[in-house]
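ESCALATION

Customer reports they have been waiting on this structure for their group meeting. Please prioritize. Original submission:
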Amino acid sequence: MPRLSRFLGLHPLTPAARSLYRRALTQRAVAELLEELGVRWDILHGVPCPQGGPQLDHLVIGPAGVFVIRGFDFRAADVWVNEEGLRAGGRKHPLADLIAQATSAAQWLETATGLQPAARAVAVVLEPAKIWTKRDSDAVAVVTGKALVTWLLGQPQVLSGAEVAMLSDAADRPTTWDTAGLDLGAEIDLSTRFDALRAEVESAARRRKVWGISGVVAAAAMAWAGAFGIVLIQIS
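Update from on-call: job pushed to the front of the queue and completed.
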């Protein structure tokens, strides 16, 4: 990023890239929530899918079963839930692909282990104003970020400790997902670069705020100076 742009606090991302960045921030927030589950749960992030399909944002395996989780950032917005998915801010957010991912994940894990785990899709809504549910769905659960950990821990136990360990071991193997050639170090490098980008974006936002305050102060000073000049003219 050029020095002048950085000094002025210009956003380092193009408008097209900002939505992807916000989505990444959302998934980071969900990942941090999932860390509270404890050692009896195995959590994987960004699981690649065979044949180049969309990755699983979060795969969670624990005593309550297997869950494929995706986060949505609808802060301070009303969220409507129906059989078609979510609606917030006048936009529809279908969940059919998330449900399909959960079904596929269960099949891949069954092939790898011989077990028959039922994987459930979970949509996590961060800090909504209110969630309005038209009809509960067995295919997908919709929970708030605040309720996520409590909701997962409150689900009935369906897997033994040995089954959790077997599924977790399979989920950790790239061959389970047909990604034997995956560079596992690339995910760590990507995470490091994202942290650097996040720091740059937040720094730019702080600079824009400072420049905004400076502009208000300058405008006020000019207004006072103009008024003072008018007074001097009138006195003279």
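Sent to customer with the following note: Residues 184-235 form the longest helix (52 residues).
Escalation resolved.
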